[in-house]
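Minutes, project check-in
Item: structure for the 327-residue chain
Input as provided by the requester:
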Amino acid sequence: MLKHLSIALPLFIAILNIVTPAGAEQIDRSYRVSAGVSRSKNLDTIPSVTNLNLMVPVSASEIAPDNDGVSELENREQSNSIEPIWSDSSRKNRSKPAIEKQSHRKLKSRLRSAKVPSLKSSILSLGGEEQSNRSKSISNRKNLIATNINSAPATIARTIRTLKSTSRQRIATRLPLPLSGNYLRLVRDPNKGNNDRGNPLYTLEAYVDGQIYQTFDAVSGTASSQNVDRNLGNNIAPLPDGLYAVSNQIVPGIVPEIGKTFIGIFPKFETGRNDLGIHLDPSFNKRNGYDGTAGCIGMTTAADRDAINEFVTKYHPQKLIVRIVSS
């Protein structure tokens, strides 16, 4: 045995001495590659002799770097160092659908963490905005209706007054003139003008059997009330145009500005005026602030008042036509 060992040992030493410098360089490179792989795996152990791959030759093309500065051997080592998905023991027995399901769960988790709004929440958000706009529209419509309802009484009343006034003017214009029988007629004569206080002078005509019997000067209202709405109650505007019934009774006056007598006249149309009549204007053309009437027909002299009282007593006129605006 010792004889054989004495022969093999010198032979082994001779073989080691025959190793060329290229072989040493190859060993060094193999060591560096193995050491790099070990470092990539965070291993602190020194590679063993078996890891040096002494018996596996490495060609120069594998060691030479390519255009990217990385050799083919290093690419192979790096590719081998990437752990495949199937290397995980917990995944080896999983099927492809299970892996896809897990991927879906991870994707959903990332979406939730990123707070990406879902389609349902977006639809609900749009629906809420649309509902809000619809609510605002309904609220605005309700406010408009409430405003119209609140203003409706005034609008209706104003429309009714306008229609009534127009209707009265049409009725007064359509009155057949002259009427048959005995009646009175109050008209405006532009040639007479106004009195000294600026109050317009009207003409009161007395008819017997459809023919003029007498005429008198008269006033109605005051100088400042000629343009006031004549159908509004409690004012001193001239009496409105239209047809009136005439009282056959002459009654005493109850206030100084009416005088001694009063003949009542009654509108045959809708109006807010009342307590109208024919009487003397005691303050006619005087500077006492009472010139004119509160809508009645005011005779300008006591003689004319007595004459109209006599006409009413003798001929019993039933009607009075007033056309001081449309004449």
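Outcome recorded: Residues 37-44, 85-90 have pLDDT under 50 and may be disordered.
No further action items on this chain.
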